[in-house]
Amino acid sequence: MPPSAHRSTDHRDYQRVPRVVTALARDAEHGVTAPPHSHERAQLLYATQGLMRVQTDTGVWILPPRRALWIPPGVVHHWTSVSKVTMRTIYVEASAARAFGDSCRVIEVSPLLRELILALLDEPIEYPIPGRGEHLAMLILSELQAAETVPIAIPWPRDRRLVAVCTAIMSAPGSAKNIEQWADDVGASARTLIRLFPKETGLHYRQWVQQVHLAEAFKRLAQGVSVGDIAAALGYASPSAFSAMFRRILGKTPQHYLTEWRQPVTQQPA
């Protein structure tokens, strides 16, 4: 039986291990929610299979397979499994984590980084130093340094009127309502909302809605929904119009991700 089979699934048990990088394996059924919490260490929240929704005070992220969220130390967050999730995540000691920035961001998990994380799970939690585990940890840090950031995030406001609008849009991303209609719903003027969006989120209204559409598209693509059906559900005039928006922001087409997620992944360790 591999060492990972004896590992705790409680994140608190990994925060003060005397190693720069530690790895946790945990599975979650659909609909499981972790209450708001933070870590002494930075976390790379990563599911090799399944979808997760993560939220902090400043943003919301939908994490599809083979993407991960970098969460700096001390950032309060909570997550929900949007499907059955196979989580293989790592924690990085706070001083080493400073090199990777102080804000949350989605990164591409390269095949090498994925295999390094899985390999570290086969080592004891307090792996010998020097030894294989130490080498794996250093390679993980190197791969994190080289990892590509995926420009997908939904900045979250604090103004109560904007929170109400953003919550409604998140719950109905394909709504045909315009900003004037949203303004009527919350008792504000359209001009006020137009001013508040960049002030509170750093994005203009249409840019913010596009980020919601990208997140929803990621979720549906990972579930195997066709590009045409996604475009229609999100209110685009045609699949090509939706694909053009998607590619302009992410540099890849929806079909690229759809093809990737249809490919089987190798068996996960126990």
Mean pLDDT: 90
Shape: globular
How much strand?
15-25%
| Major sheet description | 6 strands, antiparallel
Overview in brief:
This protein has 270 residues and is of the alpha+beta class. It is built from ten helices and eleven strands. The longest helix has 18 residues.
Describe this structure in words.
By secondary structure, this protein is α+β, with helices and mostly antiparallel strands. Helix content is 40%, strand content 21%. The chain contains ten helices and eleven strands. It has helices at residues 94-97, 111-120, 132-146, 160-171, 179-186, 190-201, 205-222, 227-233, 239-250, 254-262; strands spanning 21-28, 33-37, 42-49, 52-55, 59-63, 67-71, 77-81, 85-92, 105-108, 149-150, 154-155. The strands form two sheets. It has a six-stranded antiparallel β-sheet with strand order 1-8-3-6-9-10. It has a five-stranded antiparallel β-sheet with strand order 2-7-4-5-11. A hairpin with a 3-residue loop joins β4 and β5. The chain is globular and about 60 Å long. It starts with 20 loop residues before the first strand and ends in an 8-residue tail after the last helix.
